[in-house]
Design goal:
19 helices, three-stranded antiparallel sheet, two-stranded antiparallel sheet, 5 strands, mainly alpha
Length: 450
């Protein structure tokens, strides 16, 4: 039943009862109770009282109901027959009198005031509900980036607690530093969260944190479902296993599958695949540059269709060609924003790489539901190890290699719009720079000839 139908019923019900007289339309008691129950959701929320029970008890106390249209009274009980009663005789027996016109006008005005008051309360309730729904949807949407770029396994409460602890203590462990970094990323990603947390009541704060967490976990689940089929397709295309990896059945993946096993195999072990064999003397060579890892990142942060284009070595040489092709393909089309645009991500970050590495590893495994431990494999420790590789390099040279790797990633993912990340060699070969050199050379040649 619609909101306006409830309002109509409410108007009728309020006209049924007025203290001091019993001039009511003939109504069946069962239907009288049903009408009260129809508006209970609104009355309960506005007044904390149940209208249907009140109306039922009142209707049962009536000796009869008077038909204003036919001038005759009837006794009506449930679905049974009604007994006709002479209204004048019944009035004299009960001492009732017909109200005057002035009394009727007063009662009608009073009823209208009550109706207007209750209608106002209903509208306020409806407005409050809509406002809460908008706020809930906002928190859910804002929380979707937390697992992806802030912290995959840590709760927001843990990040806030660590930041508060820093006001009293300076000493910190590696784990505490990792939490503090996550808090800093969180406040940069959601700059409103600090102010909002200090302005709202504690119950509203807890509700906000709950909605953010639900949005974060929901996004992680969506990415897991998305990569389940995509990773199977990429493995089949690149490694061409026989039989191919089933995109719908995870029980056939993991180490029992030759193709998945090659990708899951630790670096110190050899699965007899040169393309995925690490250099044990220099394990950083090719680290975090796997094709499927890059495809997984682009599928989540830029779109599944963009994951098809991961060619090139990340020096930005294909930026101009891809940029022109994208403009031509997008003319006249309304393009939906992808995740990176929504969360304002312009560069690849360490924690986003760690997030995708965990998601791809899970997609290659045989476990069917998300968990932190898979046999001897610990996803929490895996995520932390990757984050620490980027955020805690042992020295200046290691930091330089990390920066270079992150630049490579940014060009691979956002190369089409990251012109400032072009290498010097590529910049020198661009036509605009070549034109400048030619003009300078021609000017110099003319000057020398004179």
């Amino acid at each position: 039943m619609s909101f306006y139908s409830h309002k109509i019923l409410l108007n009728i019900l309020l006209r049924f009862k007025e203290p001091g007289h019993h001039f009511l339309p003939t109504v069946n008691i069962g239907r009288f109770q049903a009408l009260g129950e129809a508006v209970n959701p609104y009355i309960n929320e506005a007044t904390g009282q149940s209208l249907s029970s009140h109306l039922l008890s009142y209707s049962l106390s009536l000796p009869f109901s008077v038909s204003l249209l036919h001038g005759e009274a009837t006794m009506s009980h449930g679905d049974g027959d009604a007994t006709v009663v002479n209204p004048e005789r019944q009035q004299s027996e009960n001492g009732l009198q017909q109200p005057s016109e002035a009394q009727s006008a007063f009662l009608e005005a009073r009823q209208r005031r009550k109706i207007a008051e209750l209608e106002g309360k209903i509208e306020t309730l409806e407005s409050g509900r809509a406002s809460k729904e908008r706020q809930t949807n906002y928190y859910l949407a804002q929380g979707r980036g937390i697992r992806r770029i802030v912290a995959l396994f840590d709760n927001i409460e843990d990040l806030v607690t660590e930041n508060d602890r820093r006001y009293d203590e300076d000493a910190a462990t590696f784990d505490q530093d990792r939490l503090q970094t996550a808090y800093d990323i969180l406040t940069r990603t959601l700059p409103w969260i600090v102010t909002r947390s200090s302005e709202i009541e504690h119950d509203d704060y807890l509700r906000m944190i709950k909605m953010l967490r639900q949005g974060a976990d929901g996004a992680r689940g969506d990415d897991t479902s998305k990569l389940k089929a995509l990773v199977a397709d990429w493995v089949n295309r690149e490694l061409k296993p026989n039989p191919p990896v089933d995109p719908d059945d995870k029980h056939t993946r993991g180490f029992i599958n030759d193709a998945c096993g090659k990708l899951l195999c630790p670096a110190e072990l050899d699965w007899n695949n040169p393309a995925y064999t690490a250099n044990l003397d220099d394990l950083e060579v090719g680290l975090f540059k796997g094709r499927i890892l890059v495809q997984g990142f682009k599928a989540v942060f830029t779109s599944p269709s963009s994951a098809k284009d991961v060619e090139g070595d990340g020096d930005g040489a294909d930026i101009i060609e891809n940029n022109g092709r994208t403009r031509r393909a997008g003319w006249g089309l309304k393009v939906k924003k992808h995740v990176a645009q929504i969360i304002k991500m312009e560069k690849v970050t360490p924690r986003s790489i760690a997030y995708i590495a965990c998601q791809v590893r899970f997609a290659l495994s045989s476990i069917t539901s998300w968990r932190t431990v898979d046999g001897d494999f610990d996803y929490i420790q895996f995520w932390r190890s990757i984050v620490d590789f980027f955020e805690r390099p042992p020295g200046r040279e290691a930091q330089r290699r990390v920066n270079k790797l992150l630049e490579w990633w940014t060009r691979k993912v956002f190369g089409r719009s990251r012109h400032e990340d072009l290498t010097d060699a590529v910049r020198s070969g661009m036509s605009v720079n070549a034109l400048a050199r030619q003009r300078a050379d021609l000017d110099n040649a003319t000057f020398d000839s004179n």
